[in-house]
Amino acid sequence: MFLEDDIDISRIELKKLVDFLPYPIIIRENIEGEYLYFFFNKNFIKKIGYRIHQAPTNMDLVKLLYPDKNYRNEIVAEWTAREQSVKLAGKGFIKIKAHVSCKSGEQKWFEVKGSIIKNMQIVAFVNINSDIVLQEKLKKKNLNNDRMLSILGHDLRSPIANLISISSMAEQSEISQQEFISMMKIIKEESLETLQLLDTTFNWARLNFNNIRHSRVLIDFNVLLNDVLKACKSTFENKNITFTVDVGRLNNIHNDLGILTVILRNLISNAIKFTSENGCISISASSNDLIITDNGIGMTSEMVEAILDRNYSTRRGTANEKGVGIGLQLVMNLVEKINCKLFISSEVSKGTTVRIFFMEHKEF
């Protein structure tokens, strides 16, 4: 659409033409230096929601579309600059991308295009929300993957370097029986940490390359949790943590056993990590929920939000345990893969509750 000075078209004809077009469109007229609206087409009213009596002037509508003052000022400044460029060039159209607040409360991305015809502006809103949201997701995923690779590069080196160091020390010096036992304990802990990291890394890599295949089976949660707790036994026994398990109400759940094992192993390991010595962890259930509750150090609401937003950085546990760094992010992604939902509630110094909700009516 171009700047035109020689278009002679009646308002009635213009309204009919604009109402026929598939985009939300508004028409405004410059009267004594102020833009006043005289038409919102059907698609603008339907898709964005505002009517002309709610925003007769330009600033009235701008306040509705961009309620945040700082963002509104940015949009107005960008539009004004581009408008001046078009007027100076004598051709072209005004075009910006804007995050618009609809009357429904939804916020959507639009490409806003304005054409100048004499003293009027015809402004069209082209919905680009899906494209922008997809770009943001891909950008976030790439940043997350870069972060994960950085964490893995560091965390894989550390325990292996420790093993080499301990082995070299034992090989090059005479040590007592007690020192040998202490070294073996350290080697065992470092080996288990490395094994867990490799296992988590493998699952993370498979997930990112879409190589995880789903296989639905009837889940026996007592057997599943018994296997997971066996693998964690030395960790929670070292901290003298008491476990209680009562999942008898969770019956007739069909899901992927392998993926659930990875999810529960990570969640239970986290509960152990952030529960103090002599603490308690309970695993309970309802007909569609599995609930893991600890009386550990808990988290702030900001930390919970960061986890759910997949922007969480690991921290050390109550016994100075190191975190893998990608366990919770892996859990969040795997939960989505098997059509479950994860809910987290926590309070500092009181503990954390993680609830897995099984949406049995969905297939995956």
If you had to describe this structure to a student in words, what would you say it looks like?
By secondary structure, the chain is α+β, with helices and mostly antiparallel strands. It has 2 domains: 1-132, PAS domain (Beta-Lactamase, 2-Layer Sandwich), CATH 3.30.450.20; 214-363, Heat Shock Protein 90. Helix content is 48%, strand content 22%. It contains 10 helices and 12 strands. The strands form 3 sheets. A 5-stranded antiparallel beta sheet has the order 2-1-5-4-3, with helices on both faces. Strands 7-9-10-12-11 form a 5-stranded mixed beta sheet. Strands 6-8 form a two-stranded antiparallel ribbon. Strand 4 and strand 5 (120-127) form a beta hairpin. Helix 6 runs parallel beside helix 10 and helix 8 packs antiparallel against helix 10. Residues 1-8 have low confidence and may be disordered.
> What is the β-strand count?
12
Strand content bin: 15-25%
Number of helices: 10
- How many strands, which pairing sense, and closed or not: the largest β-sheet? 5 strands, antiparallel
The CATH homologous superfamily of the largest domain is named Histidine kinase-like ATPase, C-terminal domain
What's the pLDDT, averaged over the residues? 82
Could you state the order of secondary-structure elements as H and E?
HEEHHHEEEHHEHEEHEEHHEE
What structural class do helix, strand and pairing data support? alpha+beta
CATH names the topology of the largest domain as: Heat Shock Protein 90
Low-confidence stretches: 1-8
What general outline do the C-alpha atoms trace?
A: elongated
Share of helix among residues?
Answer: 40-55%
Kindly provide the name of the CATH class of the largest domain.
Alpha Beta
The structural domain count equals 2
**Rg, Å, rounded:** 30 Å
Termini gap: 47 Å
CATH architecture of the largest domain: 2-Layer Sandwich
Question: Strand order across the biggest sheet?
Answer: 2-1-5-4-3
